[in-house]
Specification:
This protein is mainly α and 125 residues long. It has two domains: 30 residues; 88 residues, PGBD-like superfamily/PGBD (Muramoyl-pentapeptide Carboxypeptidase, domain 1, Orthogonal Bundle), CATH 1.10.101. Helix content is 50%, strand content 0%. The chain contains four helices and no strands. The radius of gyration is 18 Å and the shape is globular. The N and C termini lie far apart (52 Å). The relative contact order is 0.15.
Length: 125
Amino acid sequence: MNTGTRKAAGRGAALLVAGLATFALSGVVATPAQAAIISGRCEYTSSQPEVYRGSAGTAVRQVQCELNYAMRNTNLDEDGDFGGLTDAAVRKFQRCVGIGVDGRVGPITWSHLNRWAAEPTAYAC
């Protein structure tokens, strides 16, 4: 690799890093510090494990709470049981925000839930 090629590659890498930093700071993806706890709203847990139909516990309560705030006319019981109603609400939310619809709450769905549940005046759908 000649000197000119190395310099060009170095500039390209620097631009890529700068672009990724800008994207990360844009608020598109929740960082661990922003994760889950929504003061005054959903305060069950800051843990964000993957949850899906059949899951149970405080992370499911957090999902149910965030879904209640993220979508209009959603009134899930925050009972910590990921059953049929929670599954249907997760799938509806995933369709509304334009992400893959699989009924599982993983990192991408958590990120969108965190954002929409914290919105004081807007709903995802």
